[in-house]
Design brief:
This protein has about 190 residues and is mainly alpha-helical. It contains 6 helices and 2 strands.
Length: about 190
């Protein structure tokens, strides 16, 4: 007889939802901060640009002085690299996060998964503005955008699986392998 799946910890108070939103906002800041830190470190002088995806307006932090495709890839990938780092820390420290009342960490992890899946969809469908992370990564590597979409999707899907199946033996390794592959491509190409 198999054990019942773990239950989700309750969110009953308004403050729980505020902490969840604060975690998601922190995930966003860490993602964008990764781009900015590498922009500044490589002297690429970032600037904000207005972009749209259909009816949805948003912005891109675009480097203005890039010297190579490798630099474009590394800067574009750095947001996912930061997400990979904090998701590994969260799931490594608390593999049974789903069972615990930690709305801030759930917000950060949720942001990582939702943003990565959203980017993966745009990559797989070959849509989105040219400044998007997956499209910039694809151009820099000279591969189709569906390839970078898959590269972003695999770790996010594994992390979602890890959230629901914390005792998985394979998912942490596949997730980590996908994240390291993304980072390693910056050095290899």
């Amino acid at each position: 007889m198999s054990a019942a799946p773990p239950k989700e910890a309750d969110f009953r108070k308004v403050t729980d939802w505020l902490w969840l939103a604060a975690g998601a906002l922190t995930g966003f800041v860490v993602h964008e901060g990764g781009h900015v830190v590498l922009d500044v470190a490589t002297g690429s002088e970032p600037e904000l640009r207005k972009v749209t995806l259909g009816p949805f307006p948003f912005f891109a932090i675009q480097p203005t002085k890039v010297q190579s495709a490798q630099q474009v890839y590394a800067i574009s990938m750095m947001g996912f690299g930061m997400q990979g780092l904090y998701s590994e820390l969260i799931l490594g420290i608390d593999p049974r996060l789903r069972e615990h009342h930690r709305p801030f960490l759930k917000g950060m992890l949720g942001f990582h998964i939702v943003l990565s899946v959203g980017y993966a969809i745009t990559g797989l469908a070959s849509i989105g503005p040219p400044q998007s992370d997956v499209n910039s990564m694809a151009r820099a590597l000279n591969v189709p955008s569906w390839g970078t979409g898959l590269m972003v999707l695999v770790p996010a899907a594994c992390d979602l699986y890890r959230y629901f199946v914390p005792d998985s033996r394979w998912a942490p390794w596949v997730s980590l392998g996908g994240k390291l592959t993304m980072i390693g491509a910056a050095a290899a190409f």
